[in-house]
Design a protein that fits this description.
This protein has 195 residues and is mainly α. It is built from 7 helices and no strands.
């Protein structure tokens, strides 16, 4: 190691710069070894190459680990699917089985259906639901865009990891809740069609 540090300023020998040709052919060659970067040593091409290789290895290992966004993408996708199924099952129940007694339980949705119709209310319900699922997934990935939303009820600043954790739990809870709503709609459609 001391030999490498002492020779850093000197020009390399012709034997050191010659291509490595093994007697057994190209596949039997051992790759050339770069000296390790020594703290405090002058910056040389060897140090730059070693740093470049270490950076490439770090990037390759980072690529293997999924990011938060990649982990949250399936939850957002399933949430958006549940919202679409909720809109579709609500529309089917209220359009085809209204004579059999199908009713909307949400008073705000009942008001919207009286003013803009069943189809428009179901589309609006889907759009709002998908936007809310996306917002929860985005908050679970990077927190809220506005710093005021990252505060607690008493307006104390909360750490970002708590904001992200709470948004992830809210996303998971909303998926379970939407699963229950879609299941209830399907059960109602089956019961009303049998009657």
């Amino acid at each position: 190691m001391a030999d490498i540090i002492e020779r850093r300023g000197a020009q390399p020998d012709a034997a050191e710069t010659a291509p490595h040709a093994p007697p057994g052919g190209l596949l039997a060659a051992e790759p050339p070894r770069l000296p390790l970067a020594v703290p405090g040593a002058p910056h040389t091409a060897d140090n730059a190459n070693t740093t470049l290789i270490a950076t490439e290895v770090a990037i390759e290992s980072a690529d293997r680990q999924p990011t938060h966004r990649q982990l949250l993408r399936p939850f957002w996708f399933v949430g958006a699917l549940m919202m679409m199924l909720d809109g579709l099952t609500t529309y089917i129940a209220l359009t085809f089985f209204a004579d059999n007694g199908a009713r909307e339980g949400n008073p705000l949705a009942v008001w919207a259906m009286e003013h803009i119709g069943v189809a428009a209310t179901c589309v609006l319900k889907v759009l709002i639901g998908v936007a809310m699922m996306w917002r929860l997934a985005a908050a679970a990935d990077r927190g809220h865009k506005f710093a005021l939303l990252n505060r607690s009820l008493l307006l104390r600043k909360r750490p970002l990891w708590k904001v992200r954790r709470d948004a992830a739990w809210a996303l998971a809870f909303s998926l379970v809740l939407m699963g229950v709503v879609v299941g209830n709609n399907l059960r109602a459609i089956i019961n009303l069609s049998a009657a």
